[in-house]
Amino acid sequence: xxxxxxxxxxxxxxxxxxxxxxxxxxxxxxxxxxxxxxxxxxxxxxxxxxxxxxxxxxxxxxxxxxxxxxxxxxxxxxxxxxxxxxxxxxxxxxxxxxxxxxxxxxxxxxxxxxxxxxxxxxxxxxxxxxxxxxxxxxxxxxxxxxxxxxxxxxxxxxxxxxxxxxxxxxxxxxxxxxxxxxxxxxxxxxxxxxxxxxxxxxxxxxxxxxxxxxxxxxxxxxxxxxxxxxxxxxxxxxxx
Length: 240
Known about the structure:
Layout: E1 3-6, H1 12-24, E2 29-30, H2 44-52, E3 55-60, H3 68-79, E4 83-87, E5 106-107, H4 118-131, H5 141-145, H6 154-159, H7 163-172, H8 183-192, H9 197-202, H10 206-216, H11 227-236
Parallel strand pairs: 1-2, 1-3, 3-4, 4-5
Helix pairs in contact: 7-8, 10-11
C-alpha cells in the first residue's frame, strides 16, 4: 500500500476527492469508508494498514484533530516517520495537540479545486520525493507548484521551519531570550533582528536547508547540490 488517508467523517467529501486524484496518478490508497467513532476499539485492520503503508496522509481540520482515532493514526504514522499532514482549513498552531506542534504542514487553499490548488501540487511533489516516484508529477502540477509564480516572504519562510530549527537559528545568530518563546514569538524575534536573508540562511545546517527546500516545494533540485547552492536557490524564491 502506498498511501493511508487519515480523515474525519466530517471531511469525507474532500478526502474522497484526494483519494481519486492519488489513484489517478497510479497510487494504491487505503481509505476507510465507514470510519470509526471516538471511543470505539481501534480496529486491527487500521493498525495493520498504517504499518503496511509507505505514507500516511493526514487531513487536519478542527473536526479531525478532536477525534481520538484520527490523532492516534497520526501518532502511529509519526512514530514510523510516515506522517505527511495537510490542513484542509485554516488551523491555529496553538490548537494543535502538543505532539504535533513542531510538525510542518501545508494548508489547502479555500474554495479551489485540487487541480487549481498550489498547495495540493506541492503535496504531490512531496509525495513524489518521499516515494521516489517522479512520475506522480504531471505537467499540470509543475506550473501550479513553481515558486517563481508565488515567491515567499521571509515570514512565510520562517513559518515553514520547525520550532527546534528556529531555536537553533536564534542560538547561532546570538538572539537572546528565545528559550521560552513559542513558534510565532520565535519568528517575530528573528524578524526583529533584521538579518540579511542570505546571512540568515547560511547559519542553517545543510539538513535544515534541505528540509526547508522540501517544505517550500523545491524537490527536484535538492539532491546533489552543496550548501552554498541551496542558500542561493532558496534566496531566489524569496520576495525581493
